[in-house]
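Notes to self after the call with IL:
- keep both proteins in one doc
- input above output, always
- annotate only the second one for now

Protein 1:
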Amino acid sequence: MPSRELLNELCPFRPVTGCPEIQARSSESVFALWEAWEKETGQQCPVPFWAVVWPAAQVLARFLLNQPDLVSDREVIEIGCGGAVASIAASKAGALKVTANDVDPIALAIARQNGAHNRASLQFDSENRIETGSIGQARLILCSDFFYAKVDSLVLAGLLDTWREHSFTILIGDSGRAFVPTDYREVLLEQWVDVDSDLEGREKREVRILRY
């Protein structure tokens, strides 16, 4: 885990693009943070993908704040929460209970910091929901910019089918990732978002909010 001093210098709390009501740790240069983190620890560290508020998370958070009826008085789980920006939005929109879930312990630690900074009431857990298929008592499932890796994406897609059969509401924020399932029921929103060209290889991505 990077020190708080390093995070405050290179990954401070910033207003989320398009969603300034929420502040989250975000780095202007992930690669500079990565280099400094390895120097601080004296060892190789994984790429700090948790230091970015990814475009789909930005748009999904804004969408939830604009549509509080979707989450009000409901139990919510965000799978692969990263910095938990969508979870924070769900909490602010009036969800009864929000669980921010991620298997990456550092991402979950950053999510805790973001939640505390925004005074959001969140639960956190690191259970591998793709392996267990469990979502507890939640009836609204959130996921954003998840579908990078083929194997995990295919497994999650199968779980989406199972959860949908139980009449759970599933909202996916996707910015054109390779393995996003195509059998969604409707597109609730489409929006172009500026992105980090060093990370994305382009300057803009189209984000869609999909209901399954």
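Protein 2 (the one to annotate):
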Amino acid sequence: MRTPQRVPLAGLPGRVRIYEVAARDGLQNEPAIVPVEVKAELIARLADAGLATIEATSFVHPKWVPQLADAEQLMSALDRRAGVRYPVLVPNERGLDRALALGVTDVAVFASATESFAKANLNRTVAEALAMFAPVVGRARAAGLPVRGYVSMCFGDPWEGDVPIDQVVAVATRLVELGCDSLSLGDTIGVGTPGHVVALLDALTRAGVPLDAVGVHFHDTYGQALANTLAALRYGVTTVDASAGGLGGCPYARSATGNLATEDLVWQLHGLGIETGVDLGKLVATSAWMAEWLGRPSPSRTVQALKEERR
């Protein structure tokens, strides 16, 4: 199998942690329910490919995201491997209770930088959502769990248009104040560009958010995900969210097309000489298998190219 020629670029990190989101963020947007057994196999294959952080599911009410109604069954079915973390999303204290009962060791909360998306996604204002997260984060941290704070709509919103940077910073810093030890900055509808990425990271740094706590989560709606990732890496970010095979979108924002494909990210990182711990061949085989199960081609350009090469 072809691999990228490694040609390092100055000013980039030596290693990047990939925060794999296909099993949760990817599959939550599927029109059909994917069986628990298939989800568990997907997660096992991703671990076999060397991914060490694999977001498994969300303990949201089944009414809101029926594709993830099987969270308990999935977590019980997982072969949780040493050295691999399986974070889950918890929207409220009830979700946290369900997760803790299953021995979950990493959780995340999902905030919005805009009022419109907070209303669509959580049926709350931004302030009300943050108030709801306060006891969730506090209890999780008291139990010794790391907590990630997602911030969605960081670069644009389908209802509100451009999102002011200071609005994003206000939500991000509040999550840190609540006790989140890491953040994920989401370009939920994929409208960001590299200069915007740098401007946001500048503002967060000035606000006192430590750079090693920041991850980025780009969607490729306008083909900017890899360019935006490179801008974040140049700034010093070392955690990048991606979805195997480019699966996913957002059920509450129809203009949010697929996530950055993990294979495309790995091809770029390995070409830059950046270590990931990921076996690209195994990852491509996993995404090709999942695409076959879903009955459609993977949107990942790397998966497409390497599959064609094998013919």
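Annotation: The CA atoms of residues 33 and 66 lie 8 Å apart. Residues 126-142 form the longest helix (17 residues).
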